[in-house]
Amino acid sequence: MNQKRLSRKEISDAVDGLGWRFVLGVVRTSVPVTSLAQAAEVAARAVAAAGEEGEASLWLDVRKDQVILTLQSLATGWVSALELELAHRVTAAVSELGLRTDPGTGGQGPRSVQMVEIAIDALDIAAIRPFWKAVMGYGDEAEAHGPEDPLVDPAAQGPAIWFQQMDAARPQRNRIHFDISVPHDEAARRIGAALAAGGVLLSDTAAPAFWVLADAEGNEVCVTTWQGRD
Fold first, then answer.
1. Where do the H-state alpha helices sit in 19-143?
2. Structural domain spans, the chain
3. Is 2 helix (H, G, I), strand (E, B) or coil?
4. Where is the Glyoxalase-like domain (predicted)?
């Protein structure tokens, strides 16, 4: 039986208190550690807590200073009740080691957890999508197989690529920009840091879904959150 698709707010509310954040279709956290051996122990505990039912939902990035944990249903490209349950179980397992799940918001870590997308403006999306799929070695996003749908890295390492429809050609202007999806409580700090570093705020009319910024030469980037999208 198909379960109701959870809203972005439902997902975010369910994990915020656990030290996880909802960003771009996943829930993600990091666990600060002091060695690669400790990182491996965290990873082992997380895998054990997730169990067999969680093997298709849990991704791990193991490093000497942190373990990044991500939960998403690969079948749907979204977060279901199972992933929320797994977040509770993994958090408890990490706590048993005397460690914490920490999204790194508020400047508390090297940076907050995040997801990155590349947006490509195009007049004919269907004509260019196969090129980007081939040259990047990418595949279709879960449940999104149309000629204008996003592309994702099957190894879950590179940023997703999506295509923005143009109505007319725009010569001498950037047609590729980055989308930086950050925790909803990290956006203001990240934008402030970008503006202090010489950036310009081009538009906040769609905030808090996204803000459009640019560097000193006009190259654009969007800082996005889940808010304002349900």
1. 36-50, 81-96, 125-136
2. 8-105, 115-224
3. coil
4. 118-224
